[in-house]
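> tool_call: predict_assembly(chains=two)
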Amino acid sequence: MSLWTLLMTPFVKNAFYAVTAVAFAAGLVGYFVVLRRQAFAAHAIGHIGFAGAAGAVLLGFSPLAGLLVFCLGAGLLIGLGGASLDDRDAVVGVTLTAALGLGVLFISLYSGYANATYSILFGQILGVTVGDVWLVAALSIAVVLVISLVYRPMLFVSVDAQSAEARGLSVRGLSLLFMALLAITTVVAIQIVGVLLVFSLLVAPAAAAEVVTRRPWRALVLSTVLALASAWVGLFLGVWIGGPVSFWITALASLSYLVARVGAGWRAHYALASV
Amino acid sequence: MTVLSLRDASVVLGGRQIWQGASLNVEAGTINVILGPNGAGKSTLLKAILGIVPLAAGEIEVLGAAPRRGDVRVGYMAQSRAADQLSTLTGRDYVGLGFDGPRFGWRRDATKAATVQRALELTGTLSFADRPLRTLSGGQRQRIALAHATVFRPQLLLLDEPLAGLDIAAQAEIVDLINLVRASTEAALLVVAHDLNPLATITDQVLWIARRQIRSGAIGDVVNERTLSELYGHPIEIVVTPRGRRVIVGLEEEFAHPHPHGHDHSHEDVHEHFAEVYDEVTR
């Protein structure tokens, strides 16, 4: 089978649509994750979702339903409990370990085929169905739409919560909204790269973009472009060369961050040398 | 014109009375410095004026009405914006958030760029406005924060510790800028400070908060031995240095320890300190 016919098979096409949708949501939400220094929360929500998925499988529900419930619940809990910076890490850490413990319990209780667990942990991009694509696309469009509407207040609250509050914004309300967006994006991204690697798609492109440009608008666009590029090229390499697609996507996203850091370092070095 | 007035105002936070029975007026075009020990309720006063903290009793009138969050006629510069030190945001973008940061939706305002530019000009920040906040000095960041707070030319401007953490030269620059903002906008300014000395020459009124009371008046009417001794219920001496700086003796523990509770200082302990707590810079 030639590469072209391989790329045109339904499962690769579905994967392509799904990664595209996910990359948009992850690139945009990721920018705010980096700006708000909430990478740890992003990391935790995925792992907490794992407990939900394992629980759902145990009870005979769809793992996706368990993911949604647990990720949203965890997001709102973190948003409510950790509104102040001081205790946020503790709140996130405790919620994370409690949920992971539950996940371990659920897996040990589940005597059936462990394939579902495996695909939640590592993603199953090439097993995405048409129904998954529609769901992922709908959730991603909702996330992108909401972010475009709350972009300015979210930016304001993220960089200067006190002034934003004085100007009439609800810091807690926006924090909760953000955690909900993050949770939904995490659920969607888990479909593609899995719980263990979701972090890379959410954080690496945005972190790279923040290194390259200081304007928020450009960083948002660049973050989305990098997430898209990692997802598309990663999918292509997975089909062409082989190996897990989630590995390729993760590797490319991380590479983009590395290149951005090294590039910024060189730029600073030569700027100093030329003075 | 009276921009701000408090009548018998009290604030209770978490069951604790912060201050009570406060009555004072603030006039347009004046600079009013809020002083007092840590935890006395200086920032709380600003938050009550902003409508963030409700009064337990009495009333506040801001520009002829009850305080309302989001009133653009009131500018606010928050204390120690920790995110500044990490932020890759440029000063111009941060000032822009003062303009349309609270606004939801897709609509863009065509007057934004010009309004932001004017605020940057007024505060003399144009030369570094396009650099990331984290690459700026403390004084430059405070100037940008002032531009952010004055973007709508407020009639009442609240500054929470604008001189904190700055060296003497930078403090003097910010003091000049505060005076310039007063002159060019005719706003009433409330400035929370730890040290009256750098602000003394431009101060019209002092609001001193201690022991749940607020005393207001000209510097000489408040910062004198009788009023302060009365306010603290403890003998206070004021020493004027040859260069005219006032050193307050008898408040050592109020200023030396941010949280005096839990420290058991004996009476002798207080007097062992010879002098000077008032001028934080020289310590």
